[in-house]
Structures are given as C-alpha cells and as structure tokens.
Amino acid sequence: MHAATSAGSMASIELGRGGAGAGASGSGNGIGIGRGGPAGTTSKKRLVMIIADPGRESTAAMDWALSHAVVEGDDILLLHVNMPPSGAPGGAAPPRTGSIGSSSGSQLAVFLGGGGSADGEFMETMRAACKARYPRARVHAERVEPATEGREAKAQTILAESQRRGVELLVIGHHRFSAFLRLRSASGTSRPRHDSTAEFLIEHSKCLCVSVQKKGKNAGYLLNTKTHKNYWLLA
C-alpha cells in the first residue's frame, strides 16, 4: 500500500490537464495525468464527473475531488443514476436526463454531517458545495435513467454518459463493506465482497477513473485507479 503525506500530496498526485485517456503516470508512487503546463495553469476546459448518490461514500468522493483534483476553469458534472429499488422490476426506461436547478443549499460540512440527504436534496447540497468552493465553475447536476438492465446497469450507464460527454476525470465513491460480508463462490468458499460499479468503471473507462474511500474522520483517503491500487492519501 502506498502512502502520501498531506504536505507532499500534490507533488505525488498530479491530476492536471491531459487529453481523455492521458493515462496515469508518475514514478510509481503517485497518481497522475499529464499536465499541459505548470501546475495550476489551464490549457482548455476540462469536464470532471462526480457520481452523486445520497451517501457518505459519494460525499467523500466529492470532498476529495474538490480538494485534490478540481482546479479553476474545470466544469463539474454531478451525475446520479436513478436505479430502481432492490427487488423492483428491472424494466429499463429510455435514457433521459434532467438538470437540477440552482439552490442555496447547505454547505459541505452540513452534508458530511448528514444534512441534505432527503430525496432530491442531496444533489442540491452537493451542487451548492461545489459552487461554494469554486464560484466561477460551471456546476451541473443531472439525473439519468439506466440505459440497460442487469447487474452492471449503473456502471454501464455511467460509462456511456462519461464517453458521450467527453469526461476527462471520473470520480466515484467506493462503497465500504464489512469484512464479515462475503459472497459465496461457485466452489462453496467465501470471498470478499467488492464494489463492482467502481471496479467496472476503473477497468473500462477511457478517461482516468478514481474511486475514493474515506478512511476515518482524519485518516485520509484510499484511492484506486487502473494502475494504482489501495493508494493511501493522508488528509
């Protein structure tokens, strides 16, 4: 497991501006996209997609993105996939999008404390937090219907949307499962349960996809990309 201190985090994790698919690079102990110029400069607008769900994992992903990945000049898209409740009929509706209007919303600290989690409100809260951090950024919040059916419907919908929109950086919260929650394999032995949506997107995204898991209040983040596994970034 790699670790980076907060003082050196920006030196080892460079999420700058490259073309879509400008793969991760670096010395082997960091996560990076090639920069078009000195740190903090802008060569063109970049679209950063953050997957928005009403949960702490999604909030942690946004918190990390705003603190370590987004820079002035970026556009931010908060995307939520309207998945049917577990056990509901899986008939997929035709894909459609709906923009969420502006709202004063709550601040990120309130959201982290559990505020703004009611249906519909969490996206407004996340949007307000993004605008509070980057007032000049264009922040869009949209809901989409699943474009397909099956176990990977959410991941495939996110993948299709990211490719259609030309996303350069995709950020998703990594769901935490208890060590006691295990899936039974075909051989009858148990194996750890993983977040299949995040893993699918990391493997198949043409842009850089980063999954984020918050490690305690002040313990930092656990990051995963296609080329970096379990990268621990201290807060």
TrEMBL record:
Q: Which InterPro entries match?
A: Rossmann-like_a/b/a_fold, UspA
Q: Would you say which domain of life the source belongs to?
A: Eukaryota
Q: Where is this region: Disordered?
A: 18-38
Can you give the residue ranges of the UspA domain? 48-207
Protein name (database record): UspA domain-containing protein
What organism, scientifically named, is this protein from?
Triticum aestivum
